[in-house]
Amino acid sequence: MRRANIGELQNRESYPSVSILLPTHRVHPENQQDPIRLKNLLDEARQRLDAEVGKRPSWPIIERLEALAEEVDWQLNEEGLALFASEDFSACYRLPFTVEGRVAVDRSFETRDLLYALHRMPRYRVLSLAEEATRLFEGSGTTLEEVRDGGFPISWTGPGGVTRRPDGAMMQRSNQRHAHRKEFFTEIDRILSTATKDDSLPLVVMGTKNTLPSFARVSSYSGPLAAQIEGSYAQASPATIAGMAWPHLQEWLKRSEARRDR
Asked: Beta-carbon neighbour count of residue 117 at 10 Å?
């Protein structure tokens, strides 16, 4: 779950808005009980809605909640699960922290505990540089979520030598490719700066030994650069990205704390 997700929830207000929070378990056999616990919370939500607004008005919300529950893959559990639904909205988020299992029915969604937990956990971003798809991830600890808005992911659209430069007739193919790559990294930096301007976080950048310095030369990212990891991870899963980036971020946090203590 990202801070932007909480912001979206906070901006929605209509009665009834239902929030279901559930602690979950990552491993067998504990995770076998999680679907049963969610079913019990769904039953509680149904009973409360029936009592407060009546069966017919509550049908669309219950259907949204049940649809969310059907889509949960319990093999991908983290520490918690949150389901939100109103008459015209629904969302489900995995949580990198545990929560107290409960149902809330109100004019707005239950976000206070989620925001508090996110504040306590060190959040960071990972930018994975690649021509086929430059991807942005955000999260905390070993849990990252790929950002799929604000222009991400970004793909290379102009291979060197295809698009004619102002002096294209005289420019060698290698120089054309270099110019296009610089434009590509500049565009990545522009989109990254726009997408993150209101929420500056430590950034881990991943890329090949050529892409890392090329991006560094044009980068204007306002947050701290925590680490650079050499390699190509265009097809890596969020879990793989987090597993590699989190130890680097922990080292950066330790160094930052040591500098503050001097």
From this structure: 18
Q: Residue 77's domain spans which residues?
A: 3-119
Residues 107 and 230 in one domain: no
Tens-digit pLDDT profile for residues 37-53: 999 999 999 999 999 99
Mean pLDDT of the chain: 88
Single residue among 92, 119, 146 that ends a domain in this structure: 119
The confidence score (pLDDT) of residue 180 equals: 81
What residue has token string 């909205």?
89
- 98 and 156, same domain (yes or no): no
- Say if residues 153 and 134 touch (Cβ distance below 8 Å): yes
The per-residue pLDDT for range 164-203, each reduced to its tens digit, is 444 444 445 666 667 888 899 999 999 999 988 888 899 9
- The domain tally of the chain equals 2
User: Residue 146: phi, psi to the nearest 5?
Assistant: -75, 135
What is the maximum span of the chain, computed from C-alpha positions, in angstroms?
Answer: 77
